[in-house]
Write a structure and sequence with these properties.
- There is one protein chain.
- The strands form three sheets. Strands 2-3-4-1-5-13 form a six-stranded mixed β-sheet, with helices on one face.
- It folds into two domains: about 160 residues, D-Maltodextrin-Binding Protein, domain 2 (3-Layer(aba) Sandwich), CATH 3.40.190.10; about 210 residues, Periplasmic binding protein-like II (D-Maltodextrin-Binding Protein, domain 2).
- Helix 2 packs across helix 13 and helix 11 packs parallel to helix 17.
- It is built from 18 helices and 13 strands.
- It has about 450 residues and is an alpha/beta fold.
Length: about 450
């Protein structure tokens, strides 16, 4: 792909950023050092260069840095933005997601990659599912096979995590250490007050489908609770169960299940069962505390332990007051993928980071135990799901991993496009006025169309 075409991909796909993932012990080294040494040699051969002295990592928060610091063998922290792996200096280029700042910063660096000095090149960068194809579909990402990583190395990973970062030619361009199946996270005290029990086996039937969800929402309202803080809390459950993509033959497409979310959400708001707060705002997060009177949130493991104020005294999470159940439908939300930048002079080190943090079952098990993350390794997760000594303190000691494992096996990500981030964000933004009664549904949809076309001029509606 020519440089000009790549520039257009990066430029036209720039959209407003979304906050997805929030936010030890040293893991065991690989048990096959000879094989890894051979793979490192292969990775070096692919790039035609010896290992560089600086590894530049681009990311949007501290999460991946923490995983490397706590679990990658031999990593030494120097300061907040620097570390060492042997003789290699690690430089963390961390730019928050707000206002698309992370992607803008990364894109600017990638567009200068060919001219950059060796120690200034992007070596490793992170991407999220909503905009993964923007980078996977370009020549700025190295094929994982060119790093010497084989299908056998990745055999224990969940299939959908590979599908997200596979280009149109079937070439894998990234790997992830985590899986992000979602569950319904509910308030134990509210469950006992309203339904007489906080046991997942008693709560799940009351939320087994959307009709049951609405019926239970009425019971909750009668006792002073909202079923969810915002109708945006349920958005990913619907959007991850679509049967068509956001764009079909260059035309914006609203899937029937997205339309169902609109109608169901309008009914919830009109009945007073839920609010319309923007995710991550102060009003939305009031439900993290008992006085917020919110029954449930929907999210993956990262939301439970890293985004619900677990470290804040007085929060429900801090008191271990949440529990998890499957809810009306399985879904996936978020995830972080590691990509090697084309032109890196640290291919062997990147390959080893990928192997250790996404393939090493011992290290991945440590991540579950130390960080309560759901990792992208079936044997590790299946073993932890059966571990009677494991429990999440935020969930009152509940081991929710069996339902996470069941959900991960069912995730299908075959409808993603390079336009997903912009479409998801603009759709929720446009529908807010309809939910609040300041505009009608048709006008809200037209506003959505216009906002997306302004963002992506190559699309029609």
């Amino acid at each position: 792909m020519k440089k000009r075409a790549l520039s257009l991909i990066l430029a036209t796909a720039m959209v407003a950023g979304s906050l997805v993932a929030c936010g030890g012990s040293t893991g065991a080294a690989s048990s096959e050092p000879a094989a890894e040494a051979e793979a490192e040699t292969e990775a070096e051969a692919e790039t035609g260069a010896e290992e560089g002295s600086v590894l530049n990592v681009y990311c949007w928060n501290e999460e991946f840095k923490t995983r490397v610091k706590d679990h990658y063998p031999g990593y030494e922290e120097v300061d907040a933005t620097h570390g060492k792996i042997g003789d290699i200096e690690v430089v963390w280029n961390i730019t928050p997601n707000e206002n698309n700042a992370y992607q803008n910063n990364l894109d600017e660096a990638l567009l200068k990659q060919d001219e950059a000095a060796a120690n200034d090149k992007v070596d490793l960068f992170l991407i999220e599912a909503d905009y993964a194809l923007k980078y996977v579909g370009s020549d700025y990402t190295m094929p994982i096979a060119d790093l010497g990583i084989t299908e056998e190395d990745l055999a224990n990973q969940y299939s959908y995590t590979k599908d997200v970062v596979t280009d149109s030619n079937g070439v894998l361009k990234g790997v992830s250490w985590q899986g992000c199946p979602g569950v319904m996270i509910y308030n134990r005290e509210a469950a006992k007050e309203v339904f007489g029990s906080d046991a997942p086996e008693d709560i799940q039937p009351k939320f087994a489908d959307w009709d049951a969800f609405v019926a239970s929402a009425k019971e909750l309202k009668d006792k002073g609770y909202q079923v969810v803080s915002s109708v945006n809390d349920t958005y990913r459950v619907y959007s991850n169960n679509v049967t068509s993509p956001w764009v079909v033959d260059g035309k914006i497409n609203i899937d029937a299940n997205i339309d169902k979310w609109v109608d169901d959400s309008k009914a919830l708001v009109d009945a007073g069962y839920a609010g319309t707060h923007d995710l991550w705002g102060d009003d939305w997060s009031k439900g993290f505390y008992p006085e917020g009177k919110v029954f449930a949130y929907f999210g993956p493991a990262w939301l439970i332990d890293f985004c619900m104020a677990a470290d804040t005294e007085g929060s429900i999470a801090n008191a271990g007051g949440w529990a998890a159940t499957e809810g009306p439908q399985g879904f996936n939300w978020g995830g972080t993928w590691i990509c090697a930048a084309a032109g890196t002079d640290n291919a062997a080190e990147i390959a080893d980071i990928m192997r250790q943090l996404t393939c090493n079952v011992d290290i991945m098990t440590d991540i579950v135990k130390d960080d309560n993350d759901f990792v992208n390794n079936k044997p590790a997760m299946e073993a932890m799901a059966q571990d009677e000594t494991y429990g999440d303190a935020v969930l009152g000691g509940q081991n929710a991993l069996p339902m996470f494992c069941a959900g991960a096996d069912k995730i299908v990500m075959d409808q993603i496009t390079i336009y997903d981030q912009g479409c998801n964000e603009e759709f929720q933004k446009a529908m807010k006025g309809y939910f609040e009664g300041t505009t009608d549904k048709e006008s809200a949809i037209n506003a959505f169309y216009k906002a997306v076309v302004e963002k992506y001029p190559d699309l029609t509606y």
